[in-house]
Amino acid sequence: MPQTSSKPRVLAPALTPFNPDLSVNTHAFIDFCHWLVSQGAGLAVFGTNSEANSLALKEKIALLEALVQADVPVDAMVPGVGLCALPETIELTRRAVDLGCSGVLALPPFYFKPASDDGLFAYYANIVEMVASVRLKIYLYHIPQFTGVPITCSLIERLISAYPKTVVGIKDSAGDWDNTERILREFPGFEVFPASEALLEKALPLGAAGCISATANVQPAAIARTIAAWGTAGFQKEQKEITIIRNLFQSQPMIPALKYAVARQFGDDGWLNVRPPLAKAADSWGRPLCDELAKVGFRMEVQA
């Protein structure tokens, strides 16, 4: 059975900034990732809230290389690598391993449905066998409401039985606590990351590895503090505060809402840009959201 990291952590699916022509603003991306790390967060770059599936393979590789060149710590990075085309997934995974990333977050291929467990096992097995590195650590990514391809407990069992030192964890973004709880109970030592900090109170006692959360883009230090406070008298207060912020953001389209808040914080309207089919946040709901956030005392902290 895989061994859980000794200390639960928060990872942010880092937002991707775009220029007006919708090219990636690499400089802003690097600065933002540096800020996230300074706040105590790891980097799940190329996650859902990074608009990962709106980025080309060559863009992802170039961004990974740019982060490394800019001295963003590679051991903080768990980039998303899962693509429908197996060769592209292998290429991106291999580059992440070569650069020294601590792991990869791997969506299942999501075009051909229904996908059998046999087919999905073969997909992940090919990644492991073709990358062929003892340094490869794969975190599965379960988000069936987007992919239409669930990662079942039987598939998890097969993968960790075949590759116990490589398939080491999962991000469960299904929004189904019963499923998260089942994985935590059935696979002790497997690193399970719920997709919301609101679940830390229930997940940490069962051995969760922390969380990989969209709103870690805007409250990374607060989530890190909450995880650190687990088992202390201050935990409940911290949990309540971060849950309020999470609920406010998820009341609106998540990615545009997060980018609206970041744009306001850093005084850079370029952060409002999203790639189609997403649409920019509208002031008609963005301003009221920021007003509500201000009422509960929210601010993006500038120091760790």
Biggest sheet architecture = 4 strands, parallel
Q: Could you say how many structural domains there are in total? A: 1
Distance between the termini: 34 Å
**Portion of residues within helices:** 40-55%
Beta-strand content: 5-15%
Counted by DSSP, the helix tally is 12
The name of the CATH superfamily reads: Aldolase class I
| Level-1 CATH class name | Alpha Beta
Explain this structure to me?
The protein is α/β, with parallel strands linked by helices and 304 residues long. The chain contains 12 helices and 7 strands. It has a single domain (9-224), classed as TIM Barrel. 44% of the residues lie in helices and 9% in strands. Helix 2 (57-69) runs parallel beside helix 3 (86-99) and helix 3 packs across helix 4. It is globular and about 50 Å long. The mean pLDDT is 95.
Keywords:
four-stranded parallel sheet; TIM Barrel; alpha/beta; 9% strand; 304 residues
Please specify the SSE layout and strand pairing.
Blueprint: E1 9-12, H1 26-38, E2 42-43, H2 57-69, H3 86-99, E3 104-106, H4 117-131, E4 138-142, H5 144-147, H6 153-162, E5 167-172, H7 177-186, E6 191-194, H8 200-203, E7 210-212, H9 220-228, H10 235-249, H11 254-266, H12 283-295
Parallel strand pairs: 1-2, 1-7, 3-4, 4-5, 5-6
Helix pairs in contact: 2-3, 3-4, 4-6, 9-10
